């Protein structure tokens, strides 16, 4: 049975309520009991110095170390969240169930959902969370840092030759990142043009034949053991011929920064640009 | 009239072959594909046409033939035009085992998924057979009921696996439940061949018996059919065909149900004439379905099972309205 | 010459015997009628004789050899069972059904040859369906379907026909035609065992009669000897009057319940 009796203390401030990145109103005020549902928003909270206020995190959260040692939710459902009596729940479009967020809001909880589909949106998310939790200075500082690194990546990327590319999320079946995702933004900052189809969802499955298209010159993928193993299988098949002989170059990015749209994301941008600079 | 129909079948089959090799991929344009077929293509186009499309086409043809033939055989065996190899739970075990293997195996061992699928198909086949047994052997009604029950159970298992699968594996696990030929390799085609060739011979051998069984088991026995033996062999042959199909291509529905019906409308019910043509028609239709799956949102792919369902349902409705 | 001999034949369904030890001898060129009240086991006996239902006791010998030693296709060439009805899952034509009768002669691979087509045509003519080969069986009346099944049995060119209530759905004209056909077949050397409800038909057709009650043989012998008022009282529970016209077989009229 749901525990409906909650008390939450929200300091009524005078500034007008904010809108989060999916359009929900967010009341501003200090947060003392934060539940972060996903790795990217957990990292963001910690980067903003809100670590001490985080009481519990989602099952997949593993960074930073302190976050990893916090209690993890048993499941991503209403009861597991309510048990912690949070005064702010952080969610993300990169993996949180929007219905869960709806139900929490219906029960009167304060939620903030980020929707990071680009560097710019990341910076926005940063200032947003900071504003919502009255952590303005930390926010400004972090935002500036993120903005700077992204700008640096962009600057260096602009000097590189433009090439056709794919961001491979999963090798077998072949799943790529479509325009509109942060992976797409990652490619564009490094002056790579994303060849994934735009009309089949955010992470469409594509024919392995696409790897044989001469338009594909660079393939970017997160460096994880599963990915490497499946990549090895693909390279051994006919579809991987161009990859095998190096006609299309594979760039492996540090896995976590490249896979989650959190404050470490710019590391992936910089890493991609640096790799390209080594061999344009 | 039958001659014209046969010619029509050959045309459709050729269209499927040509389309499968020339169209639908980003790896080679139709012109490039044509040059590959005439021996003048460059390395990448050759890899695309002969290394990616050809095994895929062969797999689609084999799986389509297997499913259509299994459906035709089961419909005759059970004297029930609604028998579909997937409704009989034969492939439920295969799909469940494949989904489980895909979700749980380490990436390097992913090649074991087809083997797991075959074991699962064998298990669910055995379960259906065992549940359906009665004093006179498994009767058609009991087989249908047992099949429906096993199918429901394995569907539940599959949903549970999908719910618990780690999210990176989810897309691939879903692909199994919706059917795909993307994993086609020349080796897969070789592995599948015995699962199609041997049952095909068995079903052709018992074609006449199956025709007699369409009027009921007692009627057939009176005309010389060894009902228990034929029942066992045909069921096993159908199970092998389905198990092989699911192992390499996942769950592709409607082909086994619709193709025999369409062919019966054209060529009549006699299995001796129907079976070879149903197999070819199933092959052609599945290959065309795969072409559609690859081409509609190219270079993105739709799952083949979705395409066959979308095409199959209106056909099915039309058939229902025609039947007496 | 004896075609079929059953001794102490027992059998039934789901582990329970319906037929409890029946003896029967069928000679060539004879017609045997099996009579009895509902549930007496007549159809079951027929199936046991044909070998489509396995027996639980007793023996059946066909042409001197035990039925169990025959291969099923061999049996089907010698003995044809005409059931009361069949499943019609698919739309078949009359010709397609009758052609099935040639299956025991053809095996798995051989396509039908001229003799097979001839046998089918003869069978269709014999039952009065000569031009109806292309009609869908599902659109036929019950009586017409029975004639199709009879034609199928005739197409097997078997020497012994086992017929389960073949006249049940026939109108008067076709009943008479059926009697004629069976007499013609008898003259051609075909023996028959016919399950009947209509005892008057039995009187017209049969050389010997077997009366079943409760799964056992109550009486057997010539119709005149077996079909007495006493038998009708004891087996069927009716008082009858036997009328003997100047020509033809006697007619038994049921008067009232006994």
- Strand residue percentage of chain A: 15-25%
Report mean pLDDT of chain B, rounded to a whole number: 85
Instruction: Sum up the overall morphology of chain A in one term.
Output: globular
Number of helices of chain A: 11
β-strand amount of chain B? under 5%
Oligomer: heterotrimer
Termini Cα gap of chain B: 23 Å
Indicate the structural class of chain B: mainly alpha
Structural class of chain A: alpha/beta
Number of helices of chain B: 14
Notes on the protein architecture:
The complex is a heterotrimer of chains A (280), B (324) and C (258). In chain A, a hairpin with a 5-residue loop joins strand 1 and strand 2. Chain A is 39% helix and 16% strand. Chain A has helices spanning 39-47, 65-68, 78-82, 98-106, 119-132, 136-158, 182-189, 225-236, 241-245, 255-259, 265-278; strands at 18-19, 25-26, 34-36, 54-57, 88-92, 111-114, 163-170, 175-176, 192-194, 218-223, 249-254. Chain A is built from eleven helices and eleven strands. With 324 residues, chain B is mainly alpha-helical. Chain C has helices at residues 42-50, 72-78, 94-99, 103-106, 114-126, 142-155, 172-187, 199-205, 223-226, 229-236; strands at residues 2-13, 16-27, 31-35, 57-62, 65-66, 79-82, 160-164, 191-195, 208-213, 216-221, 238-243, 251-257. Chain C has a six-stranded mixed sheet with strand order 6-7-8-3-9-10, sandwiched between helices. In chain C, strands 2-1-4-5 form a four-stranded antiparallel sheet. In chain C, helix 7 (172-187) links the parallel strand 7 (160-164) and strand 8. In chain C, helix 5 (114-126) runs antiparallel to helix 6 (142-155). The longest helix of chain C is centred in the C-terminal third of the chain and has 16 residues, at 172-187. The N and C termini of chain C lie far apart (40 Å). Chain A binds chain B through residues 95, 170, 172-175, 197, 199-201, 203-215, 225-227, 229-230, 233, 237-239, 241-242, 247, and chain B through 25-28, 43-45, 47-48, 50-53, 55, 106-108, 110-111, 167-168, 171-172, 175, 180, 182-183, 185, 294, 297-301.
Please render the helix and strand layout as text:
The complex is a heterotrimer of chains A (280), B (324) and C (258).
Chain A: E1 18-19, E2 25-26, E3 34-36, H1 39-47, E4 54-57, H2 65-68, H3 78-82, E5 88-92, H4 98-106, E6 111-114, H5 119-132, H6 136-158, E7 163-170, E8 175-176, H7 182-189, E9 192-194, E10 218-223, H8 225-236, H9 241-245, E11 249-254, H10 255-259, H11 265-278
Helix pairs in contact in A: 5-6, 6-11
Chain B: H1 2-22, H2 30-37, H3 43-77, H4 90-104, H5 113-131, H6 140-164, H7 167-178, H8 186-205, H9 207-213, H10 217-222, H11 227-249, H12 255-267, H13 271-295, H14 304-322
Helix pairs in contact in B: 1-3, 1-13, 2-3, 3-8, 3-11, 3-12, 3-13, 4-5, 4-6, 4-7, 4-11, 5-6, 5-11, 8-11, 12-13, 12-14, 13-14
Chain C: E1 2-13, E2 16-27, E3 31-35, H1 42-50, E4 57-62, E5 65-66, H2 72-78, E6 79-82, H3 94-99, H4 103-106, H5 114-126, H6 142-155, E7 160-164, H7 172-187, E8 191-195, H8 199-205, E9 208-213, E10 216-221, H9 223-226, H10 229-236, E11 238-243, E12 251-257
Helix pairs in contact in C: 5-6
């Amino acid at each position: 049975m749901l525990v409906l009796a909650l008390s939450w203390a929200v300091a009524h401030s005078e500034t007008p309520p904010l809108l989060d990145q999916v359009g929900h109103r967010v009341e501003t005020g200090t947060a003392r009991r934060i539940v972060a549902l996903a790795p990217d928003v957990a990292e963001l909270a910690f980067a903003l110095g809100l670590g001490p206020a985080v009481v519990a995190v989602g099952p997949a959260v593993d960074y930073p170390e302190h976050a990893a040692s916090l209690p993890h939710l048993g499941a991503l459902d209403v009861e597991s969240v309510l048990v912690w009596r949070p005064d702010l729940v952080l969610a993300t479009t990169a993996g949180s169930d929007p219905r869960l967020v709806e139900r929490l809001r219906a029960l009167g909880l304060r939620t903030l959902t980020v929707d990071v589909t680009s560097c710019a949106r990341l910076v926005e998310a940063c200032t947003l969370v900071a504003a919502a939790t009255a952590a303005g200075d930390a926010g400004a500082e972090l935002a500036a840092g993120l903005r700077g690194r992204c700008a640096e990546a962009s600057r260096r990327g602009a000097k590189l030759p433009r090439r056709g590319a794919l961001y491979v999320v999963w090798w077998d079946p072949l799943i790529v990142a479509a325009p509109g995702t942060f992976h797409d933004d990652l490619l564009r900052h490094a002056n790579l043009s994303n060849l994934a189809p735009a009309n089949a969802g955010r992470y469409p499955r594509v024919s392995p034949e696409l790897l044989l298209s001469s338009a594909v010159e660079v393939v970017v993928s997160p460096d994880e053991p599963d990915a490497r193993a499946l990549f090895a299988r693909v390279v051994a098949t006919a579809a991987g011929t161009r990859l095998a002989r190096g006609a299309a170059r594979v760039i492996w990015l540090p896995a976590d920064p490249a896979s989650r749209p959190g404050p470490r994301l710019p590391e992936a941008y910089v890493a991609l640009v640096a790799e390209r600079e080594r061999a344009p | 009239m039958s001659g014209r129909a046969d010619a029509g079948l050959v045309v459709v089959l050729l269209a499927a072959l040509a389309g499968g090799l020339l169209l639908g991929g980003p790896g080679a344009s139709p012109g490039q594909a044509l040059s590959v077929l005439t021996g003048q293509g460059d390395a990448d186009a050759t890899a695309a046409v002969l290394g990616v499309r050809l095994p895929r086409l062969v797999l689609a043809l084999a799986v389509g033939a297997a499913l259509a033939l299994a459906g035709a055989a089961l419909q005759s065996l059970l004297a029930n035009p609604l028998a579909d190899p997937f409704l009989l739970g034969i492939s439920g075990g295969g799909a469940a085992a494949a989904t489980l293997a895909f979700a749980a195996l380490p990436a390097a061992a992913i090649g074991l998924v087809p083997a797991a699928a075959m074991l699962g198909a064998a298990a669910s086949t055995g379960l259906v057979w065992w549940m359906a047994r009665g004093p006179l052997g498994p009767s058609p009604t009991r087989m249908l009921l047992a099949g429906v029950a096993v199918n429901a159970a394995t569907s539940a298992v599959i949903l549970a696996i999908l719910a618990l699968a780690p999210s990176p594996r989810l897309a691939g696990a879903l692909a199994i439940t919706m059917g795909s030929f993307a994993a086609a390799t020349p080796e897969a085609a070789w592995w599948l061949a015995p699962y199609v060739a041997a049952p095909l011979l068995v079903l052709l051998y018992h074609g006449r018996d199956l025709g007699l069984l369409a009027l009921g088991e007692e009627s057939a026995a009176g005309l010389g059919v060894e009902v228990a033996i034929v029942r066992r062999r045909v069921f096993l042959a159908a199970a092998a065909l389905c198990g092989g199909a699911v192992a390499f291509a996942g769950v592709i529905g409607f082909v086994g149900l619709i193709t025999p019906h369409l062919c019966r409308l054209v060529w009549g019910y006699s299995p001796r004439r129907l079976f070879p043509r149903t197999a070819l028609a199933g092959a052609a239709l599945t290959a065309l379905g795969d072409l559609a799956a690859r081409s509609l949102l190219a270079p993105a792919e739709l799952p083949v099972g979705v395409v066959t369902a979308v095409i199959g349902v209106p056909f099915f409705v039309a058939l229902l309205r025609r039947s007496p | 010459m004896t075609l079929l001999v059953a001794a102490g034949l027992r059998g039934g369904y789901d582990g329970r015997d319906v037929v409890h030890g029946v003896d029967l001898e069928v000679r060539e060129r004879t017609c045997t009628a099996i009579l009895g009240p509902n549930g007496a086991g007549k159809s079951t006996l027929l199936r046991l004789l044909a070998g489509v239902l396995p027996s639980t006791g007793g023996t059946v010998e066909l042409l001197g050899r035990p039925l169990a030693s025959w291969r099923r296709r061999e049996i089907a060439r010698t003995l044809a069972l005409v059931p009361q009805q069949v499943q019609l899952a698919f739309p078949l034509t009359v010709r397609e059904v009758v052609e099935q009768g040639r299956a025991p002669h053809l095996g798995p691979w051989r396509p039908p040859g001229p003799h097979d087509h001839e046998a089918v045509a003869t069978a269709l003519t014999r039952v009065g369906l000569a031009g109806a080969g292309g009609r869908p069986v599902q659109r036929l009346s019950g009586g017409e379907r029975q004639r199709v099944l009879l034609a199928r049995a005739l197409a097997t060119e078997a020497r012994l026909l086992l017929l389960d209530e073949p006249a049940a759905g026939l109108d008067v004209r076709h009943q008479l035609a059926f009697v004629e056909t069976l007499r013609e077949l008898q003259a051609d050397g075909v023996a028959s065992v016919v399950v009947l409800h209509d005892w008057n038909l039995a009187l017209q057709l049969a050389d010997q009669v077997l009366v079943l009650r409760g799964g056992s043989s109550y009486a057997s012998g010539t119709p005149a000897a077996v079909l007495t008022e006493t038998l009708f009282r004891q087996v069927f529970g009716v008082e009858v009057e036997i009328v003997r016209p100047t020509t033809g077989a006697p007619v038994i009229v049921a008067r009232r319940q006994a």
